Amino acid sequence: MVVGVCHLDLVLAEGSSLKAKRQVIKSLVTRVRGKFNCSIAEVGAQDLWQRARIGICLVGSDQRFINASLDTVLNYIERLGLFEVVGTEIEFLHFNYGEV
Fold first, then answer.
1. 35 occurs within a structural domain
2. What does the longest C-alpha to C-alpha distance in the chain come to?
3. What is the pLDDT of residue 98?
4. What number is the average pLDDT over the span 54-60?
5. What is the pLDDT of residue 50?
6. What distance in Å separates the CA atoms of residue 52 and residue 8, rounded to the nearest whole number?
7. How far apart are CA 53 and CA 7, in angstroms?
8. Is residue 22 part of a domain?
9. How many other CB atoms are there within 10 angstroms of residue 84's CB atom?
10. Averaged over 28-52, what is the pLDDT?
11. Mapping DSSP to helix (H, G, I), strand (E, B) and coil, where does residue 83 land?
12. Are 12 and 21 in contact (CB under 8 A)?
């Protein structure tokens, strides 16, 4: 089993309050969950109205597939134009269990 975890550091393109930021983040999370069936949540910078930290997680059996899927999600988020992506970090966790 392979778990792919991605952290995104984002800068909000528009907005002037935490309320506006939360609406945009909620919209982003809903869109990504619906389109890609992945786990996604705001995981940092919750008190800053112009920045966000998003965590995305995918689980599968092939690291290349997970990596390609995370790249697709990242490209989708960038194309939305709601944020400027200023940092990304991707990690893979491997769990090897004995054959059943």
1. yes
2. 54
3. 66
4. 94
5. 87
6. 8
7. 7
8. yes
9. 11
10. 90
11. strand
12. yes
Q: Which domain holds residue 68?
A: 2-94
Residue 52, domain member (yes or no): yes
| pLDDT one-digit tens code per residue, 58-98 | 999 999 999 999 999 999 999 988 888 899 999 999 988 76
Q: What is the 3-state secondary structure (H, E, C) of 13-53?
A: CCCCCHHHHHHHHHHHHHHHHHHHCCEEEEEECCCCCCEEE
Residue 27 token pair: 């919209």
Closest to 8 in 3D by CA, of 71, 64, 93: 71
Question: What six digits make up the tokens of 94?
Answer: 């491997």
Q: pLDDT per residue over 14-25, tens digit each? A: 767 888 888 888
Instruction: Return the amino acid letter for 84.
Output: E
Is residue 18 domain-resident?
yes
**Number of domains comprising the chain:** 1
CATH code for the domain of 88: 3.30.70.1120
Q: Which two tokens stand for residue 64?
A: 């290349």
